[in-house]
Structures are given as structure tokens and as C-alpha cells.
Amino acid sequence: MGREAYRSIYGDLTKLKDDSLLKDPAAGSGDDDEMFQLLIAVSDWVDSYCNRHFYPRTRTLVFDGNNGGRLLISDLVSITSLSEDSNDDKTFDETWAAADYWLEPYRKLAT
């Protein structure tokens, strides 16, 4: 995978070179691939440690609700469609219209 195609990196190769023990970004790009792999590894570690990701993804998610009035989901940006298995037969037979539900912040930050 090319560097420009990687999903998310929480750092910058030039900045890493400027602030690293190398202290000589003009020394060339001989170690760039290894340093880029280090940035990828650290970014993946951050995702794993925080048990979340910090970049948008498009995914199909399936939740087992508790028949309550709310389903709390963290890190949700938008919904394309929302379907429900209303009779527990493992078939999502009821699709909700956007007017049938509200998106509210789950972990609203104090202002």
C-alpha cells in the first residue's frame, strides 16, 4: 500500500525526522520506509489502546438491543439506513425512516 493510501497516521514523517535522534532530515530518505512503518505501528497501537479509531469508516453494524427506548453507540457519524429484526427471526424486515429516530450525542463533552 502506498503511503498516500494509508487510512490514518497520527504523525508526520518529516516531523518525526526533524524531532528524532537523527536530527538531520537532509541526510536523505534511506530510512523513510522504516520510519513510515514505525508511524503506522504507533498509529495502530493508539487505535488498539484506545479501543477505537480516529478516522471515518463505512461499515455495516449489527447490534443486539435490549428492547429499551435507546441504543447507545459511540463514534457514530451518520446512518445510511436503519433496519430492525422485529420478530427475532434473524431477518431485518423493518426499515426505519429518518424521521423515526434521533441521533443524539452519547458522550457529549461539557462546554
Q: How would you explain this protein's 3D organization?
A:
The chain is elongated. The protein is mainly alpha-helical. The chain is built from two helices and two strands, in the order H-H-E-E. The protein has a domain at 3-50. Helix content is 23%, strand content 5%. Strands 1-2 form a two-stranded antiparallel sheet.
Q: What topology emerges from the helices and strands here?
A:
Elements: H1 13-19, H2 32-50, E1 82-84, E2 94-96
Antiparallel strand pairs: 1-2
Strand order of the largest sheet: 1-2
Q: Quick one: how many beta strands?
A: 2
**Beta-strand proportion:** 5-15%
Helical proportion, percent range: 10-25%
- Rg, Å, rounded: 21 Å
Unreliable sequence segments: none
The biggest sheet amounts to:
2 strands, antiparallel
Mean pLDDT: 76
Following the backbone from N to C, one meets helices and strands in this order, namely HHEE
Discrete helix count: 2
Alpha-carbon distance between the two ends: 40 Å
Characterize the overall form: elongated
Question: SS-based structural class?
Answer: mainly alpha
